[in-house]
């Protein structure tokens, strides 16, 4: 870490117990102990590694055999209780095959011929695992696409005062359909319900994925009518529930500048503003209207154009539950806000579904979430073994297992987690290593009860991914510092693995605590946050691909944004080797990289970093690229290098004007 900028990043209002300002680069660091010797590791290259029996890790084979044997016995017990469980049958079959394979390998290691057989078996097994992993990646991407489908209904007051917003919807709808299509490779289904006052006509268009049909329908909708101030909102709500909702994501956007009829929905006095002070003349009940919409699994959002509708939506929320307000003060921003909400809804759906996919047929540990921090003086101190990743020194180090070092320490951990993510629970804690003072930390424990998902190697992979991302972030910062005067550094939190000495099954990843609001800027399947768009972080993912010659890419960027810094954790890595980080299941390989570039918009940061546009449809060598071929260049395609300009890029890109970012840069 370059100390010239890490020590200057402070948040004066947050000071930790050790005197370091909270949520700064320094506050997410542990004291690193680089003097320790490393544990030996084995090279990933099978052909270069398995040259003699001495190169086979007999202890590792023995440990794996014992683990599989215990797992086999436990699954037999489960199967006796549930003999019709097909998933258990498949698991037992694969476990039995693995046990036989290890036993066979062990018996063959004494001869050269036997070693050759082992090498062939390992290669065959790797080939099978590669096929299986490709299938899993395809399934994840299919699930992501299915969960990207969205029904979006505009519920709009179409009286005369709404003319600007009706017209804005007509003229801007292409921006919405184009953006959703380019982000998720699927067209949104659009519907429109327009209401006016009692006994005035409704405008209803059921769902269609044809933008032209939607736009043509809107062109014949006129903003007119409206007798008194209040409108016939109930007829609009009634019509919404009668539409053909079908997709997994369902969003209703209610745009209005006047409340519905009924004294308890507004602050108006007398009949001048509300002819029907007693409420809906058809005596329809709000509770039934709201529940009919809620039962359809619809996310309800509103755009209130003045304060007169506030009381109405308070009444709606009391029955419906949460109704999100989108803030729009200018018709030109209408569709942009709706795009952001639609994208956020889809991203949430994809995340939840992929989490369910990863945890299918797996039970989750039973914890009760408890947000309050415990009294640390009352908690037991546990002795722990600590595993650290020794930071890599060069890019080539990233393509081999990173070196480890060991030490001991002590922890205090809250009895209940305060949060749950898609894969892990998070606990408040305090941590001391090498007799250093206790510091506030977060302990992360894998959520699944599956013994295979809770092994030390799974935790080690998470730790290794974070160490690689940390190394690349520091390299990226150095590159930024060379180009920009006011660059924004990216810092990944230090992380260690701890294992309780009394109960070795208790394993955690430990990190220093962050306190600011949490954000997620992109995911590992091409999703990007439009609400919190960051040109720096998108450029970082692009840069990691270029810097590693297309072999690695850091994605799933999440953490906190403080003054002039991004503090991140829990990344994912796409690798050209699909079996690297196979246990964490977040490496989607070249297809994951392709998903990133499908939605990536090269910014000025990419341009100044001299990053090439990437054609993922064919193989190429980034290390021999031409420096003249950069983002936003006008140079034509290079046949030799398969690098293309923005205009000729195979990937659909989002118009830069559709994105907002607060990051401004000054060149050195």
Architecture overview:
With 668 residues, this protein is α+β, with helices and mostly antiparallel strands. It folds into three domains: 12-36 and 369-658, Phosphorylase Kinase, domain 1 (2-Layer Sandwich); 49-144, no CATH class; 147-356, 3-Layer(aba) Sandwich (Rossmann fold). The protein is 35% helix and 16% strand. The protein has 15 helices and 19 strands. The chain has helices at 3-6, 46-49, 58-81, 86-108, 112-146, 163-184, 211-219, 233-240, 286-294, 310-320, 334-358, 456-483, 535-547, 589-599, 604-608, and strands at 150-157, 189-195, 203-208, 249-256, 299-304, 324-325, 382-389, 404-413, 419-420, 424-433, 439-446, 490-492, 495-500, 507-512, 519-520, 552-555, 558-562, 565-569, 572-575. It has a six-stranded mixed sheet, with helices on both faces. The chain has a six-stranded antiparallel beta barrel with strand order 7-8-10-11-14-13. Strands 12-18-17-15 form a four-stranded mixed sheet. α6 (163-184) packs antiparallel against α7 (211-219). The radius of gyration is 29 Å and the shape is elongated. The two termini are 21 Å apart.
Give a summary of the structure in a few sentences.
By secondary structure, this protein is an alpha+beta fold. Helix content is 35%, strand content 16%. It has 3 domains: 12-36 and 369-658, Phosphorylase Kinase, domain 1 (2-Layer Sandwich); 49-144, no CATH class; 147-356, Rossmann fold.
As a whole number of angstroms, the C-alpha radius of gyration is 29 Å
Taking pLDDT < 50 over at least 5 consecutive residues as the criterion, the unreliable ranges are 1-15, 33-55, 617-654
Please estimate the helix content: 25-40%
Main sheet properties: 6 strands, mixed
Q: What fold name goes in the CATH topology slot of the largest domain?
A: Phosphorylase Kinase, domain 1
Cα distance spanning the termini = 21 Å
- The named CATH superfamily of the largest domain: Phosphorylase Kinase, domain 1
Return the structural class. Answer: alpha+beta
Number of domains: 3
What's the total helix number? 15
- Overall spatial form: elongated
Question: How many strands appear in the DSSP assignment?
Answer: 19
Question: How would you write the strand order of the largest sheet?
Answer: 3-2-1-4-5-6
Please give the CATH architecture of the largest domain: 2-Layer Sandwich
CATH class of the largest domain: Alpha Beta
**Mean of all residue-level pLDDT scores:** 81
Strand content is 15-25%
């Amino acid at each position: 870490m370059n100390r010239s900028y890490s020590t200057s990043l402070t948040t004066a209002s947050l000071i930790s117990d050790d005197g370091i300002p909270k949520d700064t680069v320094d506050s997410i660091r542990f004291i690193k102990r680089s003097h320790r010797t490393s544990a030996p590791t084995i090279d990933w290259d099978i052909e270069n590694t398995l040259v003699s029996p001495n190169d086979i890790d007999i202890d590792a084979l023995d440990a794996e055999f014992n683990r599989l044997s215990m797992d086999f016995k436990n699954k037999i017990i489960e199967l006796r209780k549930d003999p019709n469980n097909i998933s258990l049958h498949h698991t037992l079959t694969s476990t039995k095959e693995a046990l036989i394979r290890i036993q066979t390998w062990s018996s063959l290691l004494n001869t050269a011929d036997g070693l050759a057989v082992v090498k062939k078996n390992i290669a065959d097994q790797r080939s099978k695992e590669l096929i299986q992993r490709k299938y899993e990646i395809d399934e994840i991407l299919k699930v992501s696409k299915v969960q990207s489908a969205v029904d979006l209904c505009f519920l709009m007051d179409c009286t005369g005062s709404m003319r600007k917003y009706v017209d804005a919807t007509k003229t801007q709808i292409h921006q919405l359909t184009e953006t959703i299509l380019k982000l998720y490779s699927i067209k949104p289904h659009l519907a429109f319900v327009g209401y006016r006052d009692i006994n005035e006509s409704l405008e209803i268009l059921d769902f269609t994925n044809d933008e032209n049909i939607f736009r043509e329908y809107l062109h014949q909708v006129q903003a007119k009518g409206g007798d008194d101030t209040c409108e016939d909102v109930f007829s609009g709500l009634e019509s919404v529930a009668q539409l053909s909702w079908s997709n997994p994501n369902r969003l209703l956007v209610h745009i209005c500048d006047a409340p519905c009829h009924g004294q308890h929905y507004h602050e108006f006095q007398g009949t001048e503003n509300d002819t029907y002070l007693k409420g809906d003349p058809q005596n329809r009940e709000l509770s039934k209207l709201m529940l009919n919409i809620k039962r359809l699994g619809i996310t309800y959002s509103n755009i209130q154009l003045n304060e007169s509708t506030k009381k109405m939506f308070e009444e709606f929320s009391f029955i419906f539950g949460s109704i999100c307000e989108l803030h729009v003060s200018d018709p030109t921003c209408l569709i942009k806000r709706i795009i952001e909400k639609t994208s956020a809804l889809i991203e949430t759906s994809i995340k939840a579904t992929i989490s369910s996919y990863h945890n299918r047929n797996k039970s989750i540990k039973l914890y009760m979430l408890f947000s309050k921090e415990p009294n640390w003086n009352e908690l037991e101190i546990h002795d722990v073994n600590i595993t650290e990743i020794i930071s890599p020194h060069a890019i080539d180090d990233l393509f081999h297992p990173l070196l480890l070092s060991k030490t001991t320490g002590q922890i205090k951990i809250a009895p209940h987690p305060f949060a749950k993510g898609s894969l892990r629970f998070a606990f408040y804690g305090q941590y001391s290593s090498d007799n250093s003072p206790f510091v506030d930390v977060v302990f992360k424990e894998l959520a699944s009860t599956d013994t295979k998902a809770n092994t030390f190697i799974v935790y080690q992979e998470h730790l290794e991914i974070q160490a690689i991302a940390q190394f690349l972030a520091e390299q990226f910062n150095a590159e930024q510092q060379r180009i920009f005067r006011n660059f924004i550094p990216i810092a990944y939190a230090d992380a260690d693995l701890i294992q309780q000495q009394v109960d070795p099954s208790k394993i955690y990843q430990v990190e220093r605590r962050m306190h600011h609001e949490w954000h997620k800027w992109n995911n590992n399947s091409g999703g990007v946050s439009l609400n919190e768009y960051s040109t720096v972080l998108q450029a970082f993912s692009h840069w990691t691909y270029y810097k590693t010659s297309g072999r690695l890419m850091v994605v799933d960027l999440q953490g906190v944004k403080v003054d002039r810094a991004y503090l991140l954790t829990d990344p994912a890595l796409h690798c050209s080797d699909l079996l690297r980080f196979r246990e964490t299941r977040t490496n989607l390989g070249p297809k994951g990289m392709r998903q990133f570039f499908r939605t990536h918009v090269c910014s000025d940061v990419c341009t100044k970093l001299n990053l090439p546009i990437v054609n993922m449809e064919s193989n190429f060598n980034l290390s021999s690229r031409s420096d003249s071929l950069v983002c936003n260049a006008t140079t034509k395609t290079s046949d030799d290098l398969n690098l293309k300009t923005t205009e000729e890029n195979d990937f659909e890109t989002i118009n830069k004007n559709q994105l907002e970012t607060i990051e401004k840069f000054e060149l050195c």
